[in-house]
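Risk mitigation, structural track. In case the binding assays with zinc ion fail to produce interpretable data, a predicted complex structure has been prepared as a fallback.
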Amino acid sequence: MEEGRVDLHVHTTFSDGDMTPEEMVVEAAKMGLAGIAITDHDEIAGIEEAKSCAPQGFAVVPGVELSTSDGKTDLHILGYFIDTRDENLLGYLKVFREARLRRGIEMVERLRKMGVEIEVEAVLEIAGGGAVGRPHIAAALLRNGCVESVEEAFRHYIGFDSPAYVPKYQLKPSDAFKLIAEAGGIGAMAHPGTSRRDDLIGDFIASGMRAIEVYHPKHGQSDVERYERLAMKLGLVATGGSDSHGRRDGSLSLGACTVPLSTLEKLKAAGNY
Ligand SMILES: [Zn+2]
Ligand SMILES: [Zn+2]
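Fallback model:
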């Protein structure tokens, strides 16, 4: 029998995806996938729903995609097989959410002082209960007719160095790997081909990184080959996934990038620090 395939990078309505965890599980099972990892941005609340509705034999990997920065580059760190009841991790995610909310409110206040008509309530409504971010503020500005495009909102108001910009509260990548390891998880660098910071990989391994996302829709053939070689050389588990955000992507990209089911055993083995 041919080995099943798993998609280890899936977003849901619990972050910026537009399909619920249940819808993602149902679609993935329909496609014939053997499992998916739920990896919402800075959020783990969708995992329970995915697990509870998974059909017999379908693997739901509890995951997360943490937003971090080394001061120069925004870097996404994936965590797999995390304990969703880990108090440290839950505590951090709560602090992160509150900081994002405060940041959103501060940017709205700055815009209002500049005479721009925008309400906090409208931004929160667009965020739909998820983490508040600049795309939600841009959407509110667009809806009010204050700008003609999201791009203009960023350029005039909320882009880096623009008048209403407020810096993000950011976790350092090394702290993200620690947080994941302490929650019993396995840390992986997400889509390294997009950040182009291979110079950090050595430090990341020292901080507890055990895997790297080799297969990702934004990786070209040369990226895949480079990270396959790196994973082999450095003893990292090669992971991959579609990074699907549901139908928001235009069409459902779920399953566009997958890895063999046996990757899950490799990840678990790599978690024995
Ligand atoms: Zn990402
Ligand atoms: Zn992602």
